[in-house]
Design goal:
Layout lengths: L14 H10 L7 H11 L1 H8 L3 E3 L4 E2 L5 H41 L13 H17 L3 H9 L7 H4 L5 H9 L4 H9 L5 H19 L34 H15 L5 H12 L23
Antiparallel strand pairs: 1-2
Length: 302
């Protein structure tokens, strides 16, 4: 039985009205004018996701005693800075995997191996991926792409060129559909993981990247696509993860492993630790386990 829908009847409110509503729900607003300013630029509805954890009663939206507007804003700023850090790591991972995808395909299958449907598990997916890649190449304004298209007869430029205009999502789908096991393993071996693990990680990171790119909440999100935890390699990594978690903690552990491989002298670990300490965020909401900061993956590398 389908429930009948009713018309939406809530009126638009002023920023002062929004501050008053928060105060009625129990929020301590030390500087109403400042709160109005942030609501003007952040949107009441968007910021609402960050005071949700402070609610004592979701039905009435009553807030826990002592909840301050500054606490909500602190959580929002933490999440924003966390997104930027995660995007920074994913960018470096994406560039590295693009490079390996192109290198291994070129060396195993030639400069235009990506045009060979025999390398695909499923031809329909290969055709779809190729069509998407062709669209990306056609709309690219990169000088090197224009030169290669205008100079050579092949349908697309060589693999080491087209990889530069691939999105992480397309790269993930192409690796997912890549059939030759030696090629798959050659790519995954660079990162010290099995090919099925890499396939899963790329799919998950594509979702995380899109979440960040759309400025969506990252902090306590439950992801619909989660990364497979490796059975054996890299040794000890799974023991530092949380089995069954759909939240961000495992993602951060995976990114730390990846950063250690592709950028051994990185400061990303330090930046994440500093961000958590700076904002004093309850990390359990991201599924951080007790004693997480004692795990090897979170220790500064020599």
């Amino acid at each position: 039985m389908v429930t009948a829908k009713r018309p939406f009847g809530k009126p638009a409110t002023t920023y002062a009205d929004q501050v008053a509503k928060l105060q009625q729900r129990g929020m301590v607003v030390g500087d109403p004018q400042s709160a109005e300013f942030y609501l003007q630029h952040l949107n009441y509805y968007r910021l609402g996701a960050y005071w949700l954890p402070f609610e004592a009663n979701h039905a009435t939206h009553a807030l826990k005693p002592g909840t301050r507007f500054e606490d909500v804003l602190n959580l929002y700023v933490f999440d924003r800075e966390l997104r930027l850090l995660v995007l920074d790591a994913i960018e470096r991972v994406e560039v590295s995997v693009r490079s390996q995808w192109a290198f291994q395909i070129a060396h195993f299958h030639g400069a235009h191996g990506h045009l060979d449907p025999a390398l695909a598990f499923r031809n329909d997916r290969w055709q779809k991926n190729l069509a998407k890649l062709t669209t990306e190449v056609d709309r690219s304004d990169e000088t090197f792409i224009k030169h290669l298209k205008g100079t050579y007869a092949e349908a697309l430029p060589p693999v080491w060129a087209v990889c530069e205009v691939m999105s992480l999502g397309l790269l993930s789908r192409w690796y997912d559909n890549l059939k030759p096991m030696p090629t798959r393993r050659a790519i995954s071996a660079v990162y010290g993981v099995d090919e099925k693990v890499l396939e899963s990680w790329l799919r998950h990171l594509s979702l995380v990247r899109n979440t960040c790119a759309h400025h969506s909440r990252l902090w306590n999100r439950e992801f619909t696509i989660t990364p497979v935890l490796p059975r054996s390699k890299p040794a000890g990594l799974t023991a530092q993860c949380v089995a069954g978690s759909r939240k961000l903690y495992n993602t951060l552990v995976i990114l730390l492993h990846w950063m250690d491989v592709i950028s051994p002298k990185h400061h990303w670990r330090s930046h994440v630790n500093t961000l958590i300490a700076k904002h004093a965020i309850p990390v359990a909401a991201m599924d951080f386990p007790a004693g997480w900061d004692q795990f090897n993956i979170w220790q500064e590398q020599p």
